């Protein structure tokens, strides 16, 4: 099978969408498929090359002025590769692949990685729309995408090629007992709630320390907030870490306090590290934690309950050991190999159902492809938006 993956960039900055795409492309190439990643580049090109994946520079950005260049670049790539499947991971690539190629011979698969974004609705342009959790599938169905066009493929990082062959990084010198979070510094990640919970926790366990690993636009605001509530000396903002295994290996409790979370990759990483996990009951998090068997689930926006859960795990050795043991079980469902096989099955079903090469032949004979495609996708009104990519 010839596959092209589209994304705005291939930067190694902790972006979960890019990490999933890179894992998927490398695994598919290892399985013998002809795989291309087309992006604005950034840092993963050497890794892709080592795994037999070609990278093509194709700048993608939601700016009208760049549309002609993007369309021309994609058409040159399509003419050269003649793919069976184009897999778009971001909105710009999805619209480009759907409306930028006149004689489309490929099946278009889109993945909704971040359902909370308004633009996620535009991913409906795919012949098949994949969601990263059942919760996201329910949300996308509520937005008008027929259930029969949706497929669920949960994220997984176990066996990631991004870390294959790399030794465990030198462990940072963490104080204990410690709470660790790996998250972008965004309000939606619940960093403020975690800081408030940590302030409550410190009244019970004065020796506790918090490590916040990640970068983002709200970092300065969060650092100022930590100062305001009196925990700045014990809440360490560590910044971005490309390989956070050293932090996970030492975490007494791992916390993800997100307000919305489609299916955080970090939960797979924390489970693989055998950590005791506390996370919010939002989005796909319960699915990533086996409904609460592999981690304690707490309500979002509730620092007091979050503090109670962390306190229990830091003070009850038996509860901590039991939860950490359960987190380490059943990890095969989070393997990159399983991820690759699941997506390949989606590709095959999509090719069988939409027969894009037949539609391309009809177009070549003068048939109006819009009359064929629009009823099938329910997107006749979306075509007019293609010039605002």
Task: Describe the protein in words.
Residues 15-156 form the Glycosyltransferase subfamily 4-like N-terminal domain. It holds the Pfam family Glyco_trans_1_4. This is Glycosyltransferase involved in cell wall bisynthesis. GO terms for molecular function: glycosyltransferase activity. Keywords: Transferase. With 389 residues, this protein is an alpha/beta fold. The chain folds into two domains: 2-156 and 335-382, Rossmann fold (3-Layer(aba) Sandwich); 178-334, Glycogen Phosphorylase B (Rossmann fold). Helices cover 40% and strands 15% of the residues. It is built from 15 helices and 13 strands. The chain has helices at residues 16-30, 45-50, 67-81, 91-99, 134-142, 191-204, 219-228, 245-250, 265-272, 285-288, 303-315, 317-327, 336-354, 356-364, 369-377, and strands at 2-6, 34-39, 54-57, 85-88, 107-112, 128-131, 150-152, 178-182, 209-213, 235-239, 253-256, 277-280, 296-298. Strands 3-2-1-4-5-6-7 form a seven-stranded parallel sheet, sandwiched between helices. The chain has a six-stranded parallel sheet with strand order 10-9-8-11-12-13, with helices on both faces. Helix 1 crosses helix 13 (336-354). The longest helix has 19 residues, at 336-354. It is elongated. The chain starts with a strand and ends in a 12-residue tail after the last helix. The model is unreliable at 362-389 (pLDDT under 50).
